[in-house]
Design brief:
Distance between the termini: 57 Å
CATH architecture of the largest domain: 3-Layer(aba) Sandwich
Structural class: alpha/beta
Helix content: 25-40%
Number of domains: 4
CATH topology of the largest domain: Rossmann fold
């Protein structure tokens, strides 16, 4: 096989295909499929991966491989096939996908790992009685556990984790996932993907206790280049069967995948911010389909996408039994009594509940925004205050300070309203720092803890008030004695397609940390659908309602969608060549205040247009193929006009709000 087919690391769409290179005899033993190589391409040396070795090429004269960087096959055929499928689904290039899927080589780490002995294969072991009891509280839970223990493949489930702050027979969610890992690992590889490092740390501790520290590795950016590449190689060479990590771990090169797990798939941290903008949920779904591995998506709330899986029959639900749920769920109350407002923006009843609950444990106060005063408006006409430099929102970083732009950090000490020429500001919203300050005055002598932004607490012990933003809530080992959810109007008033879904996810996640039967107060009208779902503890019902509305309106995920942003002339050309089955919305001019949230580069043109398109799911692949062909043609003719194509973005339709 004297010819190597190489995928070169060139991000140009019209070059997104393998190229044939001659393999010199002295490199033949090392030039194995999956190895890193250096090749000459368009007059310069570039990196690449060998995809396969073949006997002959259709081209008469071939360039030779310049160097085999490493003979270790870091790109397995399964991951190469997955990367190709992800690139095609998101109209991107395979090299862009592999840039996040395969970490850079570290020679010292490679030598260290290859010198390590292989780990013995784990022995099949029946589930522990505690695991069987814990999964038996879910409809279908014990069956899922036992089928994994028996080595079954191709199972697909959506797990609604039980509330209760880890109390009762359900235990903590990370312990339940460790049960599934222990059941599946004797039969093949296991991947667990979590949104952030805090969730990874909790899963890490649970896995150490359940299967041992040597049986798994973690893949996160916090590890650093050497440790991350070493752990990547341990998985690629079969030295471990279990990989735990954040978003990019969806591409972990485990041998013979048996089970893929994703926790809290609605978290936007699982959305890749660089082209081609893939989502970990869709990557794992593609991988489960291609490899035949089982797939579990879990969380306290259910995303609309996983609800669509269930309604299509592609996945089955695993939900707490009603009698168990009644025993574990908190007592949720909606309180929007503005006329009975107590201290620190708390309704009087919520203030009384917090004061009583502090006698028995910590109390969680969830606020929508971090900082002191994150949003300002004109005192006279209520027009939102904007920066004169970038049109970003103004905020107040601390008491007595001057307004500062949240986007470009430009101070605005002499701000004047563009609508009425007023010079006085009022707070549109109050952040976690201001809330903690007010609670300190309302509850003298009580310990106040803040968790948000760069200062996130992992755990909380003893009695105290914990002020946290969504996703930054510390873990309380015995659960919270009460949970107060403030700023409901801020969550619900956002002009975004997923505002309701994201609000419900944040509320369910916070309320799930309350002890069984503990009070939870939401400062929202009781008629709001998300509040009603929280009171009934019905995340499945809320997701079904949200999906039904999307189907009626023709909105994602009932349809495939794309956001196309760029030079107005280039966007108009794209609109003209799309298939007839594609529905077009626009093009529209992009307002200045939307540019910073649309992932635009600093050198983007001053005037931009956006085109929103949708297509039936049956035509989604054709739409993606058309958009990719547009990228190929633009790349081949070196079109200088800016254009960005983003398929299935989480913020679809809300950028222009």
């Amino acid at each position: 096989m004297p010819v190597a087919r190489v995928l070169v690391d060139v991000p140009l769409a019209h070059l997104d295909r393998p190229f044939d290179y001659a393999v010199p005899d002295e490199m033949s033993a090392d030039a194995v499929p999956g190895a890193r190589v250096r090749v000459r391409f368009a007059g310069r040396l570039v990196n690449g991966f060998i995809l396969e070795r073949i006997g002959a090429s259709e081209h008469a004269r071939l360039q030779r491989l310049q160097r085999v960087v490493s003979s270790v096959p870091v790109l397995s055929p399964e991951i190469a096939s997955l990367a190709r499928a992800v690139a095609d689904r998101y109209a991107g290039t395979m090299s862009d996908v592999l840039r996040t899927a395969v970490p850079p080589r570290h020679a010292r780490a490679e030598g260290q790992v290859l010198a390590e002995p292989a780990q013995p294969e784990p022995l099949a072991d029946p589930p522990t009685p505690e695991a069987v009891t814990a999964w038996s509280i879910y409809t279908g839970g014990d069956a899922f556990l036992h089928r994994l223990t028996d080595g079954a493949r191709g199972l697909r489930a959506v797990w609604d984790a039980a509330p209760g702050g880890g109390q009762g027979e359900s235990g903590e969610w990370f312990s339940r996932l460790a049960d599934l890992v222990a059941a599946a690992q004797p039969h093949g590889g296991v991947i667990i993907v979590a949104p952030d490092a805090r969730d990874v740390a909790r899963l890490d501790a649970a896995l150490r206790e359940r299967i041992g520290a040597d049986a798994f590795v973690t893949l996160t950016a916090q590890l650093g280049p050497q440790r991350r590449y070493a752990n990547f190689l341990r998985a690629a060479t079969g030295r471990v069967r279990v990989v735990l990590g954040t978003r990019a771990a969806a591409f972990a090169p485990i041998v013979d995948p048996a089970l893929l797990i994703l926790w809290d798939d609605g978290d936007d941290s699982l959305d890749e911010p660089h082209a081609p903008y893939w989502h970990a949920r869709e990557v794992l779904a593609l991988r489960a389909h291609q490899s035949g591995a089982s797939l579990l998506c879990g969380g306290f709330a259910r995303s609309v996408e996983t609800q669509a899986w269930i309604e299509s029959g592609w996945a089955k639900p695993i939900s707490p039994k009603r009698e168990i749920l009644r025993a574990l769920a908190p007592r949720v109350t909606a309180d929007d009594a503005h006329d009975e407002q107590g201290p620190a923006r708390l309704p009087s009843r919520a203030w009384q509940i917090a004061r009583t609950a502090l006698e028995s444990g910590p109390v969680l106060v969830q606020v929508s925004r971090r900082g002191y005063v994150p949003g300002l408006a004109c005192q006279r006409c209520r027009t939102p205050a904007r920066c004169l430099e970038c049109a970003g929102p103004l905020s107040l970083p601390h008491a007595g300070g001057a307004p500062v732009c949240r986007w470009c950090a430009t101070p605005a000490p002499h701000w004047r309203c563009s609508a009425c020429d007023g010079d006085r500001l009022r707070a549109m919203s109050v952040g976690s720092a201001r809330t903690a300050e007010e609670l300190g005055r309302a509850f003298p002598g009580v310990r106040i803890l803040a968790s948000s932004g760069d200062h996130i607490l992992d755990d909380v012990e003893g009695v105290g008030l914990v002020v946290a933003t969504p996703g930054a809530e510390p873990h309380a080992e015995s659960g919270y004695a009460a949970v107060l959810i403030l700023d409901a109007h801020t969550h619900l008033s956002r002009a975004a397609l997923r505002a309701g879904e994201e609000t419900a996810r944040r509320w369910f996640t916070a309320a799930a940390q309350a002890r069984p039967g503990a009070p939870v107060v939401v400062t929202a009208p009781p008629g709001v659908p998300a509040v009603q779902a929280l009171v009934r503890w019905d995340p499945a019902g809320y997701a079904a309602r949200e999906l039904a509305e999307r189907v009626d309106l023709g909105l994602p995920p009932a349809v495939r969608c794309a956001s196309i942003v760029g030079d107005p002339a280039a966007v108009s050309e794209v609109a003209d060549v799309l298939p007839e089955s594609v529905r077009r919305l626009g093009p529209h001019d992009v307002p200045a205040q939307a540019r910073a949230i649309m992932r635009l580069s600093d050198d983007a043109p001053a005037r931009l247009s956006q085109l929103l398109v949708t297509a039936p799911r049956t035509d989604g692949a054709a739409m993606a193929s058309s958009l990719r062909e547009i990228q190929v043609q633009r790349s081949a003719r070196k079109d200088p006009r800016a254009l960005s194509i983003h398929l299935d973005p989480l913020t679809w339709g809300s950028d222009l709000a």
